[in-house]
Amino acid sequence: MPDFRQPSFHGLIGIAREEITPPVGIYARNWGASEHDIVDDVHRPLTATAVTMRTSPDASPLVLLSLDLGWWRRKEDEWFIRGHLIEQLNLDSARVIVALTNTHSGPSTCLEDADKPGGNLIRPYLNLIRDNVVRVVREAFRNAKPATLAWSYGRCRLAKNRDQWVPERNCFVAGFDERSPADPVLLVGLIVSDEGKTIGTIVNYACAPTSLGWQNRVISPDYIGSMRELVEGETHGLCMFLQGASGEMAPRDQYASDPEVADRNGRELGYAVLSTLQSMMPPGFKMHHSETIRSDADLAIWDYVEDSAAKNVEATIHTVEVPLKAMPSVAEVEEQMRLSEDRTMIERLRRERHVLRTVGNEETVRVPVWLWTAGDALIIGCPGQPYSLLQRHLRLHFVEKAVVAISIANGWYGFLPPRELYDKEIYTVHETPFAKGSLEFMIHGSLSQFERLCKLNPAVYA
């Protein structure tokens, strides 16, 4: 009978954090329905958390960063942060993922908003992020020590399917539909030093942070803040959050103005994380069927025995050529903006213009996807917001691996809905620049590339 192992990686692992809370008064209009433009207060601080992994002191590292920000409007602003980090620390761009948690209660990071109320604070804020990102990665390198990162799947029911059909209006809205399937899978990583001390945790879960809505006037990491507080209080190590494939996933209780709603949602996720941690085997061990005892039934006895975690690392940028929908030109969108007096419509058009400038005006666009293997974990970083089909499909295919799906990683191109939704009048299909079938095309391309990476190291693929 085979032994039972949990997916793991052993190497030099470091984790560190810096605060990136913006100043009160910065431009922060994230909702078309908002009647305000600036924030008045801070609910919880925004943070940058870094995890670094390498196989030896002289090996090229994997650098994973999680920032409490919403999404990038312009690729130039995203590269202003990530490109500076790569240059300053002489990093391999294929081994760097800068992911956003997708909070909808953060500041603008778009330099085109400089003329808005509070927009004069955006450039100094981006400079602060850029400096702190370099600082936090350097600190993670300094903190790095021999450790094991072990993974385990759990479940949490915080996320619901937000594609809600309203028969009376004959349309979809962004709400929640308890009758529609929602992916409850939670992936938790536990980092433990060779001395047995917990260094940190990594939480990968798919749920858009929309607890706070258009009336909210405070800076907040949304539910992620109270989740981290709860987990860190119990584990005594830093907790990194990675937003999963959450295109159709959001909390049931959302769009609130009371920050307690975000905190309550975060505690629901936090307790699920702690439950998952309790169910894990000690990192560095496996379960071995040692004997069978005869009783009323034959009783299988399993023991914990020492195990060696995988130490292999691979990284690549897989470029997917994705077809685009027929869309208006930037000039046509700007003309609509000029003629409109509706604040909500103007905000929609501004977002559409940002997306058009990112993808260009050809029939296809080349979208980079970051694919890593770290021991038994497969990590995919997508510069968009795919539906949960991406993580579900990969996890079903690689059942013995930990599949870490990260959205809004190294940029933002748009939503990736499944093909069956393209004949529906639904927000994500309207917003995306990608044509029907793009998500499935990306899934199958990533799957084949993961198989190739795994075969480079047979011990990982086994």
Number of helical runs? Answer: 10
Q: What does the main sheet amount to? A: 8 strands, mixed
Tell me, briefly, the overall form.
globular
Question: Helicity level, as a percent range?
Answer: 25-40%
Q: How many DSSP E strands?
A: 22
Short description:
The chain is α/β, with parallel strands linked by helices and 462 residues long. It has helices spanning 75-89, 122-143, 223-235, 259-279, 330-339, 343-359, 389-397, 427-431, 438-456, 458-461, and strands at 8-19, 41-42, 47-54, 62-67, 96-100, 145-155, 159-161, 163-166, 171-174, 185-193, 198-205, 218-219, 238-243, 249-251, 285-293, 299-306, 313-323, 364-374, 377-382, 385-386, 402-407, 415-416. Helix 7 (389-397) runs parallel beside helix 9 (438-456).
